[in-house]
Amino acid sequence: MSSPAPMERAQSNRHRRALANFAMRHQKKTIKLGRTAEHRKALLANQVCSLIEHQRIRTTLAKAKAVRPLAEKMVTLGKKGSIHARRTAFAVLRQKDAVKKLFDEIAPRTADRHGGYTRIVKLGQRKSDSAPVAYLEWVDAAILLDQEIDEAAEKKARKSKKEGEQASGAEKKSKKTAAAATTAVR
User: At 94, which CATH number?
Assistant: First the structure.
């Protein structure tokens, strides 16, 4: 048997390259987001830190889907609670305050939950560029937000009640000064 002719070899290589363009994306689950690896790593870490700080972030759907696994891994590290887990989380997030809040507040809140710590809520499309936008939030953050709203409403009610009392007190004082002025004029 002789080797294939150069023309046949060229056609088979061309055919192989053409098939490579249509190959399936097995084991290629990194969402690249159009950034270099370093930029992507920094972006995802900053998004997770913002999520930890604000309990909910508004971002594009692609970024939310990319951030979610990293956020869930950080919560799993927080649930372990060891010094090694804390250092590993700090190596990824690079913000002491975020790591502290993660280990002290967020991880204990999710102690009874086995995964699924975040939720993506689709918001539709952004007006400027029609990019799909979504909220990324902690599953148990809705309870916290409701509590904050209730506390704010109570505070507002107390403030309005206090202002009402001050207003009625001012009216009494003005009536007394008006009565005193009328008696002084007589």
Answer: 3.90.1030.10
Whether pTM exceeds 0.85: no
As a whole number of angstroms, the distance between CA 6 and CA 101 comes to: 65
Q: How many CB atoms lie within 10 A of CB 151?
A: 10
Least confident piece of the model among 6-20, 25-39, 100-114, 138-152: 6-20
pLDDT tens-digit readout, 64-74:
999 999 999 99
The three-class DSSP label of residue 82 is coil
8 Å CB contact between 133 and 123: yes
How many angstroms separate the CA atoms of 79 and 110, rounded? 8
Q: Render pLDDT for 9-35 as a digit per residue (tens, 0 to 9).
A: 656 666 666 666 777 889 888 999 999
In a domain, 49, yes or no: yes
Instruction: Confirm if 70 and 63 have CB atoms less than 8 A apart.
Output: no
Q: What distance separates the 2 farthest-apart alpha carbons in the chain?
A: 134
Cα–Cα distance, 23 to 9 (Å, whole number) = 21
**Residue at 17 is within a domain:** no
